[in-house]
Design a protein that fits this description.
Oligomer: single chain
Radius of gyration: 19 Å
Order of helices and strands: HHHHHHHHHHHHH
Number of strands: 0
Number of domains: 1
Shape: globular
Strand content: under 5%
Distance between the termini: 31 Å
Number of helices: 13
Largest sheet: none
Length: 316
């Protein structure tokens, strides 16, 4: 029954789209959480605390789901423990230090588009790390088109200057690069460790370190009420369950089929940021850059040579 759910073409499309919708919804959810908990753009410690509680809770949820699926979660060897800690410090802690600070200084619309550069960074890094995953003309053009979209979205209203800051758009791009590098390392770790177990511990460890950074830095979140509590729980659940669903889809379907869904994440991120945050999407640069980024993702993930496994698409 379960295998049929994850192999039937209509349900695969629906579940993959749901995962991308959940990841895309994180952009407005984080911005809304900042507003509800009184987290100022300059309050880095509070941003780390907010991120930390989300991923710590997500790790606990994902490990609980993994245990419910009868997978052992405590029998890691010492090398696997070291690898998981390193992955948590890089792909969760370091990535989200950059991402949460960047999103505090940039709009959800622009962040949704620019975070998709993680796909292009992955393609370039894989060329230098894997002999069987070299850059092709198609992949090169995909990266060129995708990065052109990043330049377009940051054009000033006059069209001759770049409207971006290091702490805002710069940190979002840095987060995408860390995610790409961490995903390649995570692919190596997942050869000997179940991806769901690996990610559960990675989120828990990385989230705990973020909480510690926030507390040591004197971070403080505003009074947690029903609305902000539900929002935090939603963000933890989307991280845990989107990955769980994606892992099961990868288990039963060709990687190339799922990779093509990556372009939906910036689309959903832009649409939901506009809908829930009231951010304007009427500038021509936003539409043009979104099209360029999506075309670039399609080019680098289009079926051809084998596509490397994607433990987690580039998403917040």
């Amino acid at each position: 029954m379960a295998s049929t759910l994850f192999t039937r073409r209509s349900s695969v499309f629906a579940l993959a789209t749901l995962c991308c919708l959940l990841w895309g919804s994180a952009y407005p959810a984080i911005k809304a959480g900042y507003a509800m908990l009184g987290v100022a753009p300059s309050d880095t410690a509070a941003q780390m605390l907010f991120a930390g509680w989300r991923f710590l809770l997500a790790g606990v949820i994902l490990l609980a789901v993994t245990a419910a699926l009868k997978k052992p979660i405590f029998n890691l060897t010492l090398p696997q423990m070291r690898q998981t800690v390193l992955l948590g410090l890089s792909q969760t802690t370091l990535q989200y230090v950059f991402f949460y600070i960047g999103l505090a200084h940039a709009t959800g619309v622009k962040s949704s588009i620019m975070n998709a550069t993680g796909t292009f960074f992955s393609v370039v890094l894989a060329h230098f790390l894997y002999t069987n995953d070299r850059l092709t003309h198609r992949k090169v053009w995909g990266c060129v088109v995708g990065f052109a979209g990043v330049l377009v979205v940051n054009l000033g209203r006059g069209g001759l200057t770049l409207d971006m800051t290091l702490l805002g758009e710069g940190f979002v791009i840095a987060a995408a690069f860390v995610l790409a590098a961490g995903s390649i390392y995570g692919k190596r770790v997942s050869r000997t460790l179940d991806p769901m177990v690996m990610t559960g511990w990675q989120l828990l460890i990385g989230g705990a370190v973020l909480v510690a950074i926030g507390l040591i830095g004197g971070g403080h979140l505003g009074a947690m009420d029903l609305g902000s509590g539900v929002l935090l729980l939603y963000m933890a659940l989307l991280s845990a369950f989107a990955f769980a669903i994606w892992s099961l889809l990868l288990k039963h379907n060709p990687v190339g089929l799922l990779a093509a869904f990556n372009f939906l994440i910036p689309v959903f991120g832009v649409a939901l940021s506009s809908l829930f945050l009231g951010e304007s999407v009427m500038r021509w640069t936003y539409g043009a850059s979104l099209v360029l980024v999506c075309v670039g993702i399609w080019l680098v993930t289009r079926p051809g040579r084998p596509v490397p496994a994607i433990e987690r698409p580039a998403g917040p």
